[in-house]
Amino acid sequence: MTNPLGSSTVAVSALGFGAASIGNLYRAVPDEQAAATVDAAWQAGIRYFDTAPHYGLGLSEQRLGRALAERPRAEYALSTKVGRILVDEPDGAGDDLANGFAVPATRRRVWDFSAAGVRRSIEESLARLGHDRIDIVLMHDPDESPEPDKALREAYPALDGLRREGIVGAIGVGSKDPAILARFATETDVDALMVAGRYTLLEQPALDDILPACVKRGISVLNVGVFNSGLLAVEWPDETRPYEYGTAPADILARAQGIATACRRHGVTLPQAALAFAAAHPAVASTVVGAGKPEHVERSAEWFAQPAPPAALWAELVEAGLLRPDAPTPA
Fold first, then answer.
1. Which are the catalytic amino acids?
2. Cα(152)–Cα(178) distance, rounded to whole angstroms?
3. Cα–Cα distance measured from residue 107 to residue 85, given in angstroms and rounded to the nearest whole number
4. What are the contacts of 25-29 at 24+ separation with CB within 8 A?
5. Using an 8 Å Cβ cutoff, are 256 and 227 in contact?
6. What was the pLDDT predicted at 245?
7. What would the pLDDT profile of 20-68 be if each residue is shown by its tens digit?
8. d(CA 310, CA 266)
């Protein structure tokens, strides 16, 4: 099943694949394993694939492009991002683990949300991907850049122009910052917001401003980080599980365990409930999961395909103060 993205002609599968892990996120992934992971996503019915120059200093784009090269191009949607230009550092020493990626530091990232930077980034991404078009272009983490407003002032108009020219099919912004997402939802005509970790079974701050604005204005949501960096990806979260790429505070861990306990009572696993909930809001067009191993993407697809958890689970979570009462739940 595919869903339209905003008012564009681009459609995305209800379950999407995030390619950060095959860019060696935190640990090295062999080429063969990366290719097998994308193959597993395809076999599972996934037809939306997301990457970025940031992921492994271009490695994710290269690997994803190769893995998709023999697939029918009309059958899938591909997104990448702008905002970080990659500059060669041939004498770069060490690795990029300070930025989260186990790759040699032979390139460095330079923030650039200018119109020229947008065009350059797209051209270089096309070369790394080995593709002749990108379906969706997202402005990447403008809130982390030195000039967040530049994405609104320069990058957005440039992307809007490329969309009008038909060079890209859909445009949007990806961020974990509710304020910047709300600004793009209300001040621009983007097709999509990639909402990172702000609408999950654990936390729903996107319900305050972002999601109502998306519904009102016909903006689609690409929901990512729905396991809160891994805390919700197991049946029983403990102190070893990451939250927001770090250690979970005691209150957050207790909340996750409370949700997991309720899930057990209703015969549902925590990750199954997390995926079902993340996809249930009417603004969500695709729930995007990352994976660096074939079995991980297969497992996510199996969870996603399960019948909706019982209504009694959501009612219990609301009553216990573990879920906002205004959150739409799966039918």
1. 55
2. 15
3. 10
4. 25/55, 25/56, 25/100, 25/101, 25/102, 25/290, 25/292, 26/97, 26/100, 26/101, 26/102, 27/102, 27/292, 28/102, 29/292, 29/293
5. no
6. 84
7. 999 999 999 999 999 999 999 999 999 999 999 999 999 999 999 999 9
8. 7
